[in-house]
Amino acid sequence: MKKVNLQQKFSLFSEHWSPKIVGELNGQHVKLAKLKGEFVWHKHDEEDELFFVVKGSFKMEYRDRTVEVNENEFLIVPRGVEHKPVAEDEVWVMLFEPTSTLNTGDAKSELTKNNLDSI
Amino acid sequence: MKKVNLQQKFSLFSEHWSPKIVGELNGQHVKLAKLKGEFVWHKHDEEDELFFVVKGSFKMEYRDRTVEVNENEFLIVPRGVEHKPVAEDEVWVMLFEPTSTLNTGDAKSELTKNNLDSI
């Protein structure tokens, strides 16, 4: 029941593509992440995923198109849809997704984060 | 899979205490609301509720304390906990909560909104 300040939480980490848990409700996690560069193509078979841009912008690539998401905008990627986030410059995002969600979905690799820190 | 721009969505309505649905994922709704004044004491027996402040600030009153929530901060009210939002000046909030959530929880009144608009 304590409030969470996004700026303060983002000041606690600098690594890219490493989501941090900042809240939990109704079986969902609220996560913060800093993205820069290209991620991997992947999908989540059972989870819809929300990306809200707190600072900066990024492009979400789908197989048939690309959507640019800017500050104070969000995008919901439905389960089963292949996607790849690409951030030319660093972008800060807030994620909202089920607690079961793995960052790389079905594309396990060295980028996969199995145990996320709560901050 | 279209993005949602918060400023654009907030420009579409002006009434207070009338949440609008702007997204759905994993059985949860993303809602936007403009708050001003005092709401009613209530609780949600089955739903945790997240309030993220997009613009302005408000106070969440609990029975034993009050938490002020400012821009770029969020608060999760756990299920079963009585709460009352109070906004001295208009505040814009984004809500995450299960699709089953009724705005006034267990305190049905003329403030209750049974059928929310999607915008």
UniProtKB/TrEMBL annotation, chains A, B:
Pfam families hit by this protein: Cupin_2 (PF07883)
Domain called Cupin type-2: residue spans: 36-90
Top-rank lineage group of the source organism: Bacteria
InterPro entries the UniProt entry points to: Cupin_2, PKS_Associated_Protein, RmlC-like_jellyroll, RmlC_Cupin_sf
Protein name per its UniProtKB record: Cupin 2 conserved barrel domain protein
